[in-house]
Amino acid sequence: MCGIVGYIGTKQAAPIILDGLSKLEYRGYDSAGMAVYDGVGKINITKSVGRLKILENITRDGETMPGVCGIGHTRWATHGVPSDTNAHPHFNEAETITVVHNGIIENYLQLRKMLTDRGYHFVSETDTEVLAHLLDYYYKGNPLEAVTKVLHRVEGSYALGILFADCPDQIFAARKDSPLIAGQNEDGCFIASDVPAILKYTRKVYYVDNQEVVRLRADHMHFYTVDEEETTKEPVFIDWDASAAEKAGYEHFMLKEMYEQPKTVTDTLLPRIKDNDIVIEELNMTDEEICGVSKIHIVACGSAYHAGVTGKYVIEGLARIPVEVDLASEFRYRDPILEEGAMVVVISQSGETADTLAALRESKKRGFQVLGIVNVVGSSIAREADNVMYTWAGPEIAVATTKAYSAQLIALYLLAVKFGRVRGKIEDMTYASLLGDLRCLPDQIELLLNNKNKIQRFANRYIGAKDVFFIGRGIDYAISLEGSLKLKEISYIHSEAYAAGELKHGTISLIEEGTLVAAVSTQPALYAKTISNMVEVKARGAFVLAVTCEENKEIEKAADYVIYIPETNPYFANSLAIIPLQLFGYYVAVGKGCDVDKPRNLAKSVTVE
Ligand code: M6R
User: Fold this and answer.
1) Measured between alpha carbons, how far is 58 from 247 in angstroms, rounded to an integer?
2) 3-state secondary structure of 69
3) Would you call 376 helix, strand, or coil by DSSP?
4) Which of 200, 298, 329, 579 has the fewest CB atoms within 10 Å of its CB?
């Protein structure tokens, strides 16, 4: 996810662009850049790795880049590490065509080869640079024609801002599957990835459609189809306040991020399924090497550890490889036994968690290859791991993780199914059905999110709760761990997760009249067992909330309130059952008036021991 801003008008462009980018830093903040037409024939470009602040300092808040027409970008690296060279804008060799881009050009390798064969030289590792050279290739004096020709050639997603030195009075923009808006006031016209970037200047906004091109001039803008046909468009008048708008209309980043989960799951999953086969190129492992893995050690902290606990059940079940899961803070000091053939997998959203990084280093020191499942591109864990499997969740701002956790689950499922298949543990029909179930997850998550009102009503009853217990067996225990953490970290209500069979070894004495027990039961083989545990707590006065599968109607006899999840393979049930539990934690915290996005005492990234 990146942010783009453009301005053309009667005012100085650079300060407006910098101001707009500052509202988009939530979209990415590993590097930033600007291109401004200097008014006498040249496009000046300044870019820098690091936060936007650095670009502001280098350009003295835009003063060093005079001009009334420009584009800017704040980056969240996908292709190529964060660096000055990989930062946007990108340009052709003559620096007469400049591009900022949000999205992923999927066929960039093919295009890069085609252009290299024709003598074009690339300086960055990005997918975006192909756009600058491709525009150069097609530009024969008509910029609109060049833009549309390029759009016909590229596959993937994009929101683009483009400057042609030949056309100093115009900015071109286009989008497909990445957000882009245009806006206008009496001083000029704007483009941006999101409304807050321009809300200070105008509330008159045009939502650019998929595969639509915009030509902006100082006093008007024109919209075109990718076949150069002009279209008309009505503006929308924005009446949100600016701070709410940064969250795209959501009350909290956490809610917004929960709603991004269908996309996160799609983005992490689909690029790794090719021709009905799981292809994880980043693993860099031959089938022979996969078959040689004798044990997997998963190491992580917090929610990433909970994803790892699920991973243990799924990998052991599908690939029949023994898995040990460790808290990174324990692993690093317990002198772990890593035998020949063992593989270490560290999981981290931020890629900066000190204990996880230390565990990675400890494993490497002992001569073991480490696979990182990481969200933040270019982070320390991503740089130091031998191989990196990225979770494409985009920047996560709320301290309580939701979408990154969901993406971690997907990465682990992919590993489990891939390893199981390669090791001959999954036959053809099961393989096809597992892939089919994986593909259904985004829509099923969406369905559960749309059920939020029911959960909100239920959550409102528990705003005053003192203790809540989450119980489950097997994968359901792993889900309970995460459900419990979500509730306690943002609502400050004490909660604990227990393996359901363990309750009667002590914990059941804590159950009092009205204590809420959330029982997760998604594993058909264990339905009856969990129902008996529900009956035990109910008999001691507990109010029992059940999260289960649609087929398990029997549970209604033992539960006071039931939330059903759609049908999926039991190994993937966590991805669905966690949604109502996230919503529950969120709405209890909102009801209590807690600072949901920034809970007390916590930080998004724990870079100390
Ligand atoms: O960035 P990481 O995934 O390494 O972070 C690990 C934990 O600190 C993190 O999951 C934490 O538990 C979250 N706040 C939970 O919502």
Assistant:
1) 29
2) strand
3) coil
4) 200
Closest-lying ligand 1 atom to the alpha carbon of residue 401: 16
CA 159 – CA 3 distance, rounded (Å): 9
Six token digits for residue 291: 């078959």
Distance from C-alpha of 99 to C-alpha of 89, rounded to nearest angstrom? 5
Give the Cβ contact number of residue 365 at 10 Å.
Answer: 8
Residue 559: exposed, middle, or buried by beta-carbon count in 10 A (0-12, 13-18, 19+)?
buried
Asked if 535 and 544 count as a contact pair (C-beta separation under 8 A), the reply is no
Q: How many CA atoms lie within 13 A of 381 on its CB side?
A: 35
What residue owns the CA closest to ligand 1's atom 14? 400
CB 212 within 8 A of CB 223: yes
**Mean predicted confidence (pLDDT) in 297-318:** 98
DSSP conformational letter for 82: S
Question: Measured in angstroms, how far is the CA atom of residue 301 from the centroid of ligand 1?
Answer: 6
- Sheet holding 31-37: strands in order across? 43-49, 31-37, 69-75, 3-9, 188-192, 181-185, 204-207, 236-237
Residues 3 and 192: their CA atoms lie apart, in Å, by 7
What pLDDT digit, counting tens, does each position of 19-31 carry?
999 888 766 678 9
Q: Calculate the average pLDDT of the chain.
A: 93
Q: Please identify, by atom number, the ligand 1 atom nearest to the C-alpha of residue 404.
A: 3
Locate tokens 């309750």: which residue?
Answer: 503
Judge if pTM exceeds 0.90: no
Reported confidence tier of residue 64, pLDDT bands at 50, 70, 90: very high
The token pair at 288 is 């022979």
CA distance 101 to 159: 6
Pocket of ligand 1 (CB under 6 A): 301-304, 348-350, 353, 356, 399-401, 485, 489, 605-606
